[in-house]
Amino acid sequence: MQRHIQPLVLFVSGFIFASIFWNSCLDFVADKPVPDAVFSSSIIHLKEKILIKNKNTEKIVFVGGSNVAFGIDSIEIKKAFGIKTINFGCMAGIGPEILLSKIKNYTSSGDIIIFCWEYGLYRFKRTESNFTYLNLIFGPNKALRSNYPLIDQIKLSLTYPTSHVRNSIEVAYNSFVNPDIYKCPWFFDKYGNIRSNQEQIIEKLIILRTRRKEQLKVRSIMKLTKNL
């Protein structure tokens, strides 16, 4: 009887130890986000600052992923309707839960919230999400995860890749890496619209030269192919 009990005890002990160790790893890296989380979180933070400034203003808020970020100009909508309009478009991989948790504190009665989700987000399931979402809720948005049902927290903990834990530690303790380099480089105006390419003028001559170089490359490749 004891021979059968001993392996069971070892198995249970090992399972408990592994669970404690893995949770300790997740807690340890919570404030050491991977590059993906640094980038995504920096976009959210920039958009959040715009909402904070307009918290007590009647407004229209467009919420979604990159389809909103790149596809909507809130200034033009403001001109058409006469109501201040905010572009809260981030990335589809962030998922709706994180975005909704951010806007709820800075909107009030009378505000118009328009959700423009990418198709995949209409079937969003937190336990079947992508790595961007996981990196955020195990990093900068860990407080949101703590409000989930226990079963979801366990499933998500088992889903998080060990390679991301290693990557997080490598970034945090690599003296040659400044995590700030992973922040979003795009320029947003005061209404949340991307203006990174504003006033970036390319002369016609440069375009023609570039096209000529590409044509010469293609011809060279075609000659080499014929010789073969």
Quick structural summary:
With 228 residues, the chain is mainly alpha-helical.
Characterise this structure.
With 228 residues, the chain is mainly α. The protein folds into two domains: 1-30; 31-182, no CATH class. The protein contains ten helices and three strands. The chain has a three-stranded parallel β-sheet. Helix 2 (35-53) crosses helix 6. It is flat, with a radius of gyration of 24 Å. 24% of the residues are buried. The mean pLDDT is 84.
Keywords:
228 residues; mainly alpha; 2 domains; 7% strand
Strand content: 5-15%
So how many helices?
10
Unreliably modeled segments = none
What class do helices, strands and sheet pairing give? Answer: mainly alpha
Domains counted in the coordinates: how many? 2
Rough shape? flat
